[in-house]
Structure formats: C-alpha cells, structure tokens
Write a structure and sequence with these properties.
The protein is α+β, with helices and mostly antiparallel strands. It contains two helices and four strands; from the N terminus they run ααββββ. A four-stranded antiparallel sheet has the order 1-2-3-4, with helices on one face. A hairpin with a 3-residue loop joins strand 1 and strand 2. It is globular.
C-alpha cells in the first residue's frame, strides 16, 4: 500500500508503526540541521528523527587529542520541534 493510499479519503490515520508518516519530524530536523551547519557544526550521524552533531575544532586543535569540542544529540518531537542535549563523549 502506498503512502497516498494510506492518506486517502477512506483512511485518515497512518500505517501502524510508522514513526514519521507525514515527514514533520524529518522536515523539522532538516531546518534545524541547516542552521547548525551554518554555525560551524558537522553532522556525525543522522536518521529521519535524530542526529548527532559536533562542533568543528578550530585551527590546530583539530590535530591534537583531548576532549571533544562539543557533541550533541538532536531529537525532533511529533510537532517538528528540535531539541539538543549533550551527547556522550566518543570512545577511543
């Protein structure tokens, strides 16, 4: 069954188990991540509803070991609102 058939006149709900049937969460994440990329973040990992982003180290710091300059988990709720929280440090 296609997405259009699921959203047709006879069915006003989406398929059971579909996380983001209308793409609201994906669209909200796209907008949020576009803004963070402009601020100098990089995307380490991404799904339709979550992402892990990190600040790019400046100058020669990127060649040294040490603490991450900042890693965050980005989550988007059903309304397309993104929130950001600190992520666990990378494992070495």
């Amino acid at each position: 069954m296609t997405r259009d058939q699921l959203m047709g006149a006879t069915c006003d709900t989406c398929a059971v188990g579909e996380i983001d049937p209308l793409g609201t969460r994906r669209d909200g994440l796209d907008v949020f991540l576009d803004e963070k990329l402009k601020e100098g973040y990089t995307i380490e990992n991404r799904t339709d509803t979550h992402a892990i982003i990190a600040r790019r180290p400046k100058g020669l710091r990127r060649f040294t070991s040490g603490a991450d300059p900042g890693r965050y988990v980005v989550e988007v709720d059903e309304d397309g609102v993104a929130t950001m929280r600190p992520a666990e440090p990378r494992r070495t």
